[in-house]
Design brief:
Length: 355
Amino acid sequence: MPVEFPAGRGAGSNPESRFASTRITVDADAQFGPEDDERPDVRTQFFWDDTKSILASNDSPDLGFAFSVNPYRGCEHGCAYCYARPTHEFLGWSAGLDFESRILVKRYAAELLRSALMAPRWEPQVIAFSGVTDSYQPVERRLKITRGCLEVCADFRNPVGIVTKNHLVTRDADVLADLARHGAAAVYVSITTLDPDLAKKLEPRASPPSRRLAAIAELHAAGVPAGVSVAPVIPGLNEHEIPAILRAAAEAGAQFATYTVLRLPYGVKDIFDEWLRNHFPGHREKVLGRVRELRGGKLNESDFGKRMRGEGAFAEQIRQLFRVARERYGLPQRPASLSAADFRRPGVPEQMELI
């Protein structure tokens, strides 16, 4: 039986966490109200996250960056397929509705980032924004934590790469353009579909496709290198849109393009299955069957080199479809290499930097 999804939500329920015995206690004074346009059926709550560090490191060979900044934990965009949903289970919450309605806010992110970049041990290199959850989710409009972090990077001229589904990134075009003048900024705008009805069901609180295309155009006009990420490709649901998405992105001014293929780790598989049953019951068997084709008979494959694109005949079919469309519309797979050549530590004399 289909469940009744709360208005504006990508998950329909709160499945039990893998770590159900884990519990957290949150000071009620740390909460600050819902968004102004919040719907009453599932209220979003925000909590201060007074983490002591802001740079997350990884050694994954298929990511292309070693450090990332995530100003928020959880994401109100509510994308039904989001691979990051299981991270909320480490907090004792659910990968379902909790992930998109209980958002932790790293209010000291900019100060922590400034300290990290000022430290002599920091070796200038690309910092990725939205390595886990979107740095431009709705509450960023009010809190401006991501903007504060970008302003720090601009002060240091430290290169940044951004992936987002939200037109709100254009608000920071001035800071990004400043970095771009030093070859130190690139933005991927993620577009899953051009169908606004599908997008509203699949990514209920992200910007609609037309606004994401507008973001590419506005960033391009501001001198910020901008491209498109077709992500995720959901076999049996949206892979046929790849050529149309790349064409629309190129017409908007995109300068590069990439893609990733759907994977469904841990609790995401149940949430996405529930979403399919509710919104596209006729596609369910086809979609999940093709995901298994891409993932060696499973719904998730986390091995490096396989998790982003899948493997097998159907994965090769998607790769070729993307390659042909990308070449047709003149889109390189990656932006020009970001540069840390102009990195500086504000207030530190140049001779001290050399020492």
